[in-house]
Design goal:
single chain, alpha+beta, GIY-YIG endonuclease, 2 domains, three-stranded antiparallel sheet
């Protein structure tokens, strides 16, 4: 299994996206060579079944989320206010609770479906995470 990891600063701005079979060891490697390492306040990790899936997710995340310190796939773009690498976050929707919560944490989509969903997110000016979260909240509202 290969993990995709995201490093965030204390303000929630995305610093870096990467992949590794050992994400915590790789994060420690950043301490030696990355001047932004001391800014890391939070790390998010998502696991992918294959390295190829993780590479595709990494590329998409870098293109859509514009981490401040990634060089590959990160074309120069207009940054959000203050030079931050990530758009200001949308207001957080209520947390999903109840018997279906586990199903949301384990769903899988094909690479083609994920690519299509990511393009839709980019076209709407929202993050993939925001779209997924809002979809889950709406589903739970309709199911209730």
């Amino acid at each position: 299994m290969t993990a995709l990891y995201r490093h965030f600063d204390a303000d929630g701005c995305l610093l870096y996206v990467g992949i590794s079979a050992t994400p915590f060891k790789r994060t420690a490697d950043h301490a030696r060579c990355a001047d932004w390492f001391s800014s890391i306040a939070r790390i998010e990790i998502e696991h992918h079944a294959t390295r190829a899936d993780a590479l595709a997710a990494e590329r998409s995340a870098i293109i859509l989320e514009c981490p401040r310190h990634n060089k590959m796939h990160n074309a120069p773009k207009v940054r959000a206010r203050g030079g931050k690498g990530r758009r200001p976050r949308q207001p957080v929707a209520p947390k999903v609770r109840g018997p279906l919560m586990g199903a949301f944490l384990k769903f899988r989509v094909s690479p083609e479906e994920k690519a299509e969903f990511m393009l839709a997110a980019k076209a709407s000016g929202r993050t993939l995470s925001d779209m997924v979260r809002d979809g889950m909240v709406e589903f739970m509202r309709d199911a209730g």
